[in-house]
Amino acid sequence: MRPKQIYLFFLICLIFLSCNDKKAPDISNIKLNMKIERFDQELGSLKPDEISEKIPTLRKKYSWFFDDYMEKIISAGQVTDTVYYTNLRSIFQNKDYLELKSTVDKTFPNLKEQEEEINRAFKYIRYYYPKQKLPRLISFLSGFAVQTPIGNDYIGIGLDMFLGESGSRFYPALRQNIPAYIARRFNPQNISPRVIESFIREEMFPDQDSDRNLLSKMIYNGKILYLMDAVMPETNDSLKIGYTKEQLDWCSDNEASIWAYLLQNELLFESDYMKIQKYLAEAPFTPGVGENSSSAPKLGIWTGWQIVRKYMDKNPEISLQELMLEKDSQKILTDSKYKPRN
Length: 342
Description:
- It contains 16 helices and three strands.
- By secondary structure, the chain is mainly alpha-helical.
- Strands 1-2-3 form a three-stranded parallel sheet.
- The chain is globular.
- The relative contact order is 0.09.
């Protein structure tokens, strides 16, 4: 390679890096030490004959979460009636429960890695939203019922829904209720992204029922993922949106075709739920797009993400907080000048 060519090559690399490397804010002075409280271990350590004596103390400690867990998650019974103690004793002696508990204990002897990731994300949230109330983090066994429920003052983490390879002997039996394309995300790497996504969607910026057309749904979801970009800058895009690497690559390779499909079929302002849901829902692929079921799922969400990213690139004077408050999805699309070319 000639000297001039070498110079041009490195110049192009520098330009590329400068365009794609957005400097994250300094959060080193933000003091935060959120712990994941191991309700699963505290409850699991009780012997059946200790329930009557020790459960009241555990209920006092875990408050809202305890009641929700007993009544809604494992359906042990109403906590105002101690009859549920009998159901707990039965659960504690159940062979399947004991096997699941053992697997969770071995897979998650501690949650230090997840605590570090979640703390880092919440430091960014506190940087951008200093007055935002932060939740308690509580881990539990759900009996494969729920991943990250949010209650009055907490986010729960159903560890049995994140077992990865350790859960391979449990998950096949759930296929009837939980499809493989969802169960593949039941791994430890998904704990932090799902906790942060749930908090953003449910506590910070819940979806508005008034946003009914596809474009509004796309932009809303795009803003959620863009906020995840901001508070989880080191997390892979595939984990944020829940794609495989192959699905993410497919979207990048077919971005212009996806956009053309949405425009040609006049879908942006479509508000019929049945017509637009397939572009937003979890699925193995997006029906009607791509060949031989090769497309990625929820292409409306992925495209909305790219529109919001482009909007923020084109309008650097707009802050993250201003973006999240912007209700005009058409304005975001127009000002993004989004016109992908493959």
